[in-house]
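Tokens in:
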């Protein structure tokens, strides 16, 4: 489970989540330039939803990596 490919895959998922977080922030900023109130509301809430989900996924991936790292650190024999 904690092979090098697993760590690479977690980093790829964090980078992908960061991309969507950036996209959500850009969409939020762009929504303030809209003139139609309905379009503004829909874009505003959609961008906040994208930001919420991507931030939660990034947090989850980082939390999982830290948990696996701590577990590996505790199970390794001491070299004393």
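Residues out:
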């Amino acid at each position: 489970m904690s092979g090098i490919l697993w760590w690479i895959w977690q980093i790829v998922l964090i980078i992908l989540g960061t991309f969507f977080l950036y996209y959500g922030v850009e969409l939020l900023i762009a929504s303030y330039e809209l003139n139609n109130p309905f379009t503004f509301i829909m874009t505003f809430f959609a961008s906040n939803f994208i930001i919420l989900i991507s931030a939660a996924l990034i947090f989850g991936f980082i939390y999982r990596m830290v948990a696996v790292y701590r577990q590996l650190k505790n199970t390794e024999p001491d070299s004393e």
